Amino acid sequence: MAKAKTPKYVYFFGGKKAEGKADMKSLLGGKGANLAEMVNIGLPVPAGFTITTEVCTYYYANKRKYPKELKDQVLKSLAKVEKEMGAKFGDKKNPLLVSVRSGARASMPGMMDTILNLGLNDTTVQALIEKTNNPRFAYDSYRRFVAMYGDVVLGLRPVDKHDADPFEEILDKKKEARGITKDTDLTADDLKELVAEFKAAIKEKLGVNFPENPMDQLWGAVGAVFSSWMNERAIVYRKLNNIPAEWGTAVNIQSMVFGNMGEDSGTGVAFTRDPASGENVFYGEYLFNAQGEDVVAGIRTPLPIAHLKKDDPKVYKELDDIRKKLEKHYKDMMDIEFTIQQGKLWMLQCRVGKRTGFAAIKMAVDMVRQKLITKEDALMRIEPNQLNQLLRPIFDLKEKQNAINEGRLLAKGLNAGPGAASGKVAFSAHDAELMAAKGDKVILVRIETSPEDIKGMNASDGILTARGGMTSHAALVARQMGKVCVAGCGTLNINYKAGEMRAEGTDHVIKEGDYISIDGTTGEVIKGELTTKPSEVIQVLITKEMDAKDSDVYKTYADLMKWADQTRTMNVRTNADQPDQSANAIAFGAEGIGLCRTEHMFFGEKRILNVREMILSDTEEGRRKTINKLLPYQRQDFEGIFRVMKGRPVTVRTLDPPLHEFLPHEESEIKETADALGVPVEKVKEKIESLHEFNPMLGFRGCRLGISFPEITEMQARAIFEAAVNVAKEGIKVKPEIMIPLVGHVNELKLQEEIVRRVAKEVFAEKGKKVSYLVGTMIELPRAAVTADQIAEVAEFFSFGTNDLTQTTFGLSRDDAGKFLPKYVEQDILPKDPFESLDQDGVGELVKMGTEKGRSTRKDLKVGICGEHGGEPDSVEFCHRVGMNYVSCSPFRVPIARLAAARAALRDKKVVKKTTKRKTATKSKKKK
Ligand code: ADP
Ligand code: MG
Ligand code: MG
Known about the structure:
This protein is of the alpha/beta class and about 950 residues long.
């Protein structure tokens, strides 16, 4: 057998050239790939090497064992690092210390573990003292290492959320005994004692010795990093962020540099632009005489980066140059970690920075204006759902000012996640989850958050912390989740045990369950509930309280939407039943109504009684009489809509829900109805009984109603056409499209179509005016999709009703699915809730087939979608791929659908480019 090439499991970086580069993220993880890239573009990076994600995969596939080639490759790379750094791992005189860092393909901040200062033991610490002449520093590094290793590798950590950290406890005792409060006041001897006490605690509580041999330490740490891929918080994080478990993490082993070597040393994190607002300013924080963890953990409150300009102008300049170089190279906002060791700057990490949706949009639009990226790049860079954040509520300013004037301002913190939230206080993530499950709006209040809290953070409307900066865990995660967040409110004293929070300098005591309001745009924390107000975009577009020219936010939004509209080839319509909804949707860019549900019009005060009267009639004649009472109402509704839509297409669906939905259920209501209609209560009850269905979802509904009671379809068609002609006579264009629901067989459609066309003729003759219109159907049953060619011989358009199509394809009722469907997603049986995101392999295949078959018999068949999926980005992209003419969604999702449609068109173009090697893709024209 020929000898297979040994796989490469380890990649070196350092000096002038690295073995990896930025586009090797799947193999080296994001951190490893970017460390390599920074080396390659000439930035100062401490040398190290990356163990690939393939080793992680191997590790889990082989009972947590490594490939046999790994050890040798690690030793070889370690030797290179030693050479580069001029120190030797485990050496008695000149020991190399390393960090062992996790790093998956997608960044998962704080989810997995990192160990610093590895290689220290009782011998090497002496060498470090001699080398630096700084025993305090050496023992500080050592005690940190023992604590980290004890926690991460050996597993000595708090069991319960509210327990103190065992190492912190020992540390606090020490400080108490010395009568000091700051870590930095501990002496070298204190720290030395701590090392011994930490080790003793490990021995006592775990029954194992702390490993002295650096090589044992190294492999222990590597194993712990790989294992942390499967810890609970990492799993939860992956779920929330759709990161597949198969990706695995890489492990980076990197020479240590020290930010805690004295006052000319420090460490910091920064963003090349403001990640909350998107402003083009250098944004970050640093701490003097500290190690990396300290900034992120929020234990000491760091200084803003602008401060460094005064403190150390040389390093600041160097860092600012790196900031520019990185943005130019990566063409994006970057998130960096750096350490200054005795005046020398080292880069420890860079990655594309997480940002609020708000900032993402601003940065992308700004970068196009700066000519750093193209419009297409900008469109691809913004997740359509991020637009939600531009549309997010803000507080009513007057009300907020009044609250402040009344003395209800509890504190002011950092504006870490923009938006406004009001809700009940929860002091633990778990409580937040429980309260949210009950339907409460929750503000999670913590001294600081940690990765274990993410579920509770996700359940909350807002997050408030007493400690930590703009880059603390709470701030980072909140921004990513799009939550409102105020961080670092140092004047709030939070007492978990007592379940209360006191605001320094005030008499306010806030208990669990009390209302507070937080403003993540300005940082204020206010007692009590405040009304929220629409965002600037909404104020310009919908409420018209603001002028477009006064709002930068709006201008950014408008530019982006303009580019999206220039790019997309698919139309976007809205689902709206009323003139005001339709007007909003037009403001959001809707190009028509894809679904107007007529039944919503039946619920008006007078109307519902007429509907009930009709249902209670036993004869066709009786029904006709009563249903015609509804005619003027419906006509008026349609007139309103047609006027607002000004010639844009309006798809009106004939009556769809089962009739029993219109009947009263409560005893008192039944009596009222009976009295109002002058019939005995018994009769109403009988009717309710007779309309009872075992399975209403598959029962007497949709076109089945119009087939049994043609007079209903007649009345509705008449209302639509009379309205259309009336509005047309006002000089306003109209484009009605009548849509028959729940068709499974072409003959059902034929019957309904005949009625519609007959009534149209009658109305046009009566009124002496014609309007053009279409008759089409919903495709929401598998049989309809399968026989779409036959149906398209009658239907002039299809609209996929993917809510019902999902129900009928899966054979599950959405209203009953709540009991088991969430488990399907949890257990990965289904990747996503199919009612949220279209099941492309199953339901989608029917959509595709239906579209193709339909167009096989009617070439110009217009095809759209009107299920909830019409505003969900992935589903919208799918609709583009199957060649739909439009998607239709709720008004507030219209901007999202426009962007998603543009992105789909761009992805399409890319494919075209690749397969045909055309230099420029043909300019896309909007389909009509
Ligand atoms: P995370 O993925 O959670 O950000 P990191 O691997 O970046 O974890 O490490 C955590 C902290 O330790 C960071 O602040 C980082 O800058 C610091 N750090 C990691 N490696 C080194 C090193 N070799 N020298 C100095 N500091 C380091
Ligand atoms: Mg990091
Ligand atoms: Mg339906």
